[in-house]
Design a protein that fits this description.
353 residues, alpha/beta, Fumarate Reductase Iron-sulfur Protein, Chain B, domain 2, Rossmann fold, four-stranded parallel sheet, 19 helices, 50% helix, globular, iron, iron-sulfur, 4Fe-4S
């Protein structure tokens, strides 16, 4: 056990600010599919004070999806996501980690991405925009990568694909990877400097948050503005000519794009260009997580599946023709359910004239 003062003092405000009211239990995805208190924000706060090297305590800490829903309703203003990442770092520094997370970390260190993919390296040239697809869109859900390029080409955007190294988002969320994030930052910063790009557009909300928010806090500016692809397309929607469909679609707000970065309206505006939007029961800052975030899909697939299943049941109650999201990883996780799912960019690329 780590010395109590050494562990407790830096986190005193975190523990004291939590009044143990329990309102977070009403929204926490992992609590809502298990009904065990130690898989809730309140339970995790209590257990984190002990820091006993125990398997159940470790599981409690590392099954948090870092979705941020609890912060949305916490009347005491507890920054739970930020703190759970610090707690994870403390566990890891004491030699207590999730094996799958450490394996993922080693793969990223070795390959530059979590999927053992061959990095896509384009020769630098002067461009206005860098397209940073993110690892999942580039290596696993390639249709999102291709659909994005189609739309950028349609808009005659002068761009270069920057995909030499993982941004480090997943590694950071699980308490690892500041070194990976630094390599990602340095790679993007170099690309900006050598191309003169003033804008970075990304398909992945996790990358978006990491590049725009985390890098700035940890290392400084990358030297260019950062936009999610839905923001960019919304800004240029007057240049896009879409075919209208009779589809009724629902939209799943990704946690990193929505609660973490406050992008809610742009994806909806794009959807309404091509289809009828039928909202889910929990949307925008109250959206229910897909179950894939925070390293949970990699480390605890049973939890990921349970949370995904709860979201899919909600989709079925609303009964749209198609479920859309704006995140390659949400798309990847929600595909495991038995409803029709696409990334919003896939649909838009199919319908652009």
């Amino acid at each position: 056990m780590l010395g109590r003062a050494e562990y407790y003092e830096p986190r005193k405000d975190f523990f004291v600010n939590c009044t143990k009211c329990g309102i977070c239990l009403t929204v926490c995805p992992t609590y809502n599919v298990t009904y065990w208190e130690h898989y809730s924000p309140r339970g995790r706060i209590v257990l984190s004070q002990l820091f006993e090297l125990d398997e159940e305590v470790k599981k409690s800490v590392f099954t948090c999806l870092t979705c941020g829903y609890c912060e949305n309703i916490c009347s005491s203003g507890v920054k739970f996501t930020e703190e759970i990442e610090r707690v994870r770092k403390q566990f890891i520094s004491s030699g207590y980690f999730v094996k799958k997370h450490m394996e993922l970390y080693e793969v990223i260190k070795g390959y530059g991405n979590p999927y053992r993919g061959v990095p896509l390296i384009e020769e630098y040239r002067e461009v206005e925009t860098l397209y940073y697809p993110g690892c999942t869109a580039l290596y696993k859900e390639r249709e999102i990568f291709e659909a994005t390029k189609k739309l950028l080409d349609y808009l005659k955007v002068d761009y270069l694909v920057e995909a030499k190294h993982c941004c480090g988002s997943t590694a950071l969320r699980v308490g690892l990877g500041e070194d990976i994030a630094r390599k990602g930052f340095e790679s993007i910063r170099e690309a900006v400097e050598k191309t003169g790009a003033s804008l970075i557009v990304t398909s992945c909300p996790g990358c978006y948050r990491t590049i725009k928010k985390d890098y700035k806090k940890m290392f400084g500016s990358v030297g260019a503005d950062v936009m999610h692809i839905t923001e960019f397309l919304f800004e240029n929607v007057h240049k896009l000519d879409f075919k209208k469909t009779d589809l009724t679609v629902s939209y799943h707000d990704p946690c990193h794009l929505g609660r973490h970065m406050k992008v809610y309206e742009e994806p909806r505006a794009l959807i309404e260009e091509v289809a009828k939007l039928k909202e889910l029961e929990r949307i925008k800052n109250e959206s229910f997580c897909c179950g894939g975030g925070g390293g949970v899909r990699a480390g605890y697939k049973d939890f990921s599946m349970m949370v995904m299943g709860e979201r899919i049941r909600e989709v079925k109650r609303v009964d749209p023709d198609l479920l859309l999201s704006a995140c390659p990883f949400c798309y990847r996780n929600l595909k495991r359910g038995d409803v029709a799912v696409k990334d919003i960019i896939m649909l838009l690329s199919e319908l652009v004239r």
